[in-house]
Amino acid sequence: xxxxxxxxxxxxxxxxxxxxxxxxxxxxxxxxxxxxxxxxxxxxxxxxxxxxxxxxxxxxxxxxxxxxxxxxxxxxxxxxxxxxxxxxxxxxxxxxxxxxxxxxxxxxxxxxxxxxxxxxxxxxxxxxxxxxxxxxxxxxxxxxxxxxxxxxxxxxxxxxxxxxxxxxxxxxxxxxxxxxxxxxxxxxxxxxxxxxxxxxxxxxxxxxxxxxxxxxxxxxxxxxxxxxxxxxxxxxxxxxxxxxxxxxxxxxxxxxxxxxxxxxxxxxxxxxxxxxxxxxxxxxxxxxxxxxxxxxxxxxxxxxxxxxxxxxxxxxxxxxxxxxxxxxxxxxxxxxxxxxxxxxxxxx
Length: 348
Known about the structure:
Helices cover 47% and strands 16% of the residues. It is α+β, with helices and mostly antiparallel strands and 348 residues long. It has two domains: 36-128 and 273-347, 3-Layer(aba) Sandwich (D-Maltodextrin-Binding Protein, domain 2); 131-262, D-Maltodextrin-Binding Protein, domain 2 (3-Layer(aba) Sandwich). It has a three-stranded antiparallel β-sheet, with helices on both faces. Helix 13 (299-312) crosses helix 14. The longest helix is centred in the first third of the chain and has 24 residues, at 2-25. The radius of gyration is 27 Å and the shape is globular.
């Protein structure tokens, strides 16, 4: 009897183990087979927010593990291109293509080559082209009735008008000229702005101020804006500053590659901010790729969530949750109703 009981007990135990094994190999297969979606987590806020918006949807709506790998442009994009089997990283949410054009072209070419596992594929634009140029507070041109500010430079519409209004921006250390806030030493835009100054002839009317950091440049603009004072200088978007402050970009001749490379006497080129993924990602995560193809925002929306983060001292994950809650009607259009329901449930 004892031996028979032992046999029955062994059989039940073996059956239970077999059932657990089957469950592990069937019910648990979906999660076990899903490789992680790994984002190139560059060092600026907008891409980190987009990574976490997409990551939250992918993790909670599509069921993939999600990771973020920190690093700089060339390092992470090289790693994405050279990844063989989906290793880190495999998604770039903001290419800023022209900043690494030669490497981009090589990665795109490899992405079309069936004889190599290296390379990436293009999924579309995250947001329309970024902007950069010379700005003044809009109230200088149009006034601001709510703040009791009258227009001081109603005719200041383009760089050609700067000479007429230099006295509004008078340099306290050199009252015979105005002061223009340019780029930080070491940034490529600093060299470009120097060339523009000579080509446009504004060096006759303005001195260049070179802030010591990006934060100092932003602070100079914000300080003048809060006091309703004059300010003129270089800036770019998407940024929290242009999301928070009403600034007007001065007109320049349309961008021309030859002119830009020689005298820079034309507008800055727009930089593409596209979404790319490792070429193998469509094979093992087609639902993720389908979602990312639908992912599209606007420059204005980027400025808004960056400004919101600035006002609340928020981190990228905070900006992502604000985005998901504020723009539900936008992102739910990127996924199926079933996936959207899972994401909304995870947000509660």
